[in-house]
Amino acid sequence: MAALSQLIPSRLYSPDELSPALLSAASAFGAQTQREAAVPPVFRMAGSTLAQKFRMGSQPDNVPFIPAPAEKKKIKLYSRDFYAACTLGGVLSCGLTHTAVTPLDVVKCNMQIDPLKYKSIASGFAITAREGGLGGLVKGWVPTLIGYSIQGAGKFGLYEYFKKTYADMAGPENAAKYQTLLFLAGSASAEFFADIGLCPWEAVKVKVQTVPGFAKGLSDGMPKFIQQEGVAGLWKGITPLWGRQIPYTMMKFACFENTVQALYKYVVPKPKAECSKNEQLGVSFAAGYIAGVFCAVVSHPADNLVSKLNSNKSATIGSIVNEMGWVALATRGLPLRIVMIGTLTGLQWGIYDAFKVYVGLPTTGSAPPPEDN
Length: 373
Known about the structure:
By secondary structure, the protein is mainly α. The chain has a single domain (80-358), classed as Mitochondrial carrier fold (Alpha/alpha barrel). It is 70% helix and 0% strand. The protein starts with a helix and ends in a 15-residue tail after the last helix. The relative contact order is 0.10. Mean pLDDT is 82; it is low at 1-5, 7-19 and 36-47. Keywords: Membrane, Mitochondrion, Mitochondrion inner membrane, Repeat, Transit peptide, Transmembrane, Transmembrane helix, Transport. One of its GO terms (biological process) is mitochondrial phosphate ion transmembrane transport. Pfam families: Mito_carr. It is found in: Mitochondrion inner membrane. This is Mitochondrial phosphate carrier protein 3, mitochondrial.
């Protein structure tokens, strides 16, 4: 049997036959590999596009924890980093804004539950402050922050995903022709899942805010709620919550997208591409506030149902409708809710689009952004 060295040409294994350039490159590569292996992995963080927006993983290997200038990579539209950015933007926009308007929410819920005691917005604030102090006006802020942060993640992140998915399914021509239907379908699909995450926190929040002496907040309110109504009771209000939030979100996104287009077409004296980032964010806030007014009107009857169901263990949808009547369901507490939801929705779109601009993405609406190939 022939020796192995006789079967393989010597130029493939003999150092003498290797080119000096190849040997030099191999040596340099080996030295670089040894240097990298000597550095703990934590100092060589993977450089995802979104991470690089926040200067993560850009440190030189020999100077750990000291940031160095790094070339910012553009986030590719509809990529994993794109949806991650939209999800985080949703957390910030919904979690922060709902927590900020907790005093309005406390008064609104009490006006819905006990209209004889809380007869107006002014008296509602006065009674709440007198009975509970300033702390009474921010009661339930922790479940509000957690619940609406979870909801915001699903609402905005999944909306961008479903909107793109449905547009691809419809094709370019139908997507342009029926864009409002895509806005409605995408937002409804997103909110369906977002509400499943919100529902337990909303149940505890309403109970803490509207039942005197029930609990001080989340830490004692959640265990007490589960003890009284069981874990399944946390989702007792999921159907009216869908009834409130899905129409609200459909109006919020479809009205916003169409209002942005109308503002750029009829109000703003120049195309979106020629507007500064601050001007674009101003359009986002204005369109969001307008959308919020419509959202409040459409979703208000279901909002009354949610408040009543979560404050009264024995209440049912039928008993609440019989007690209040359809007119009261649609109007009780509505003026305050218009102020609250209009401001809330305007701020949400402003924060969401400001975050998108911060990470290098275009603001929402007006025209479909060009897709990177």
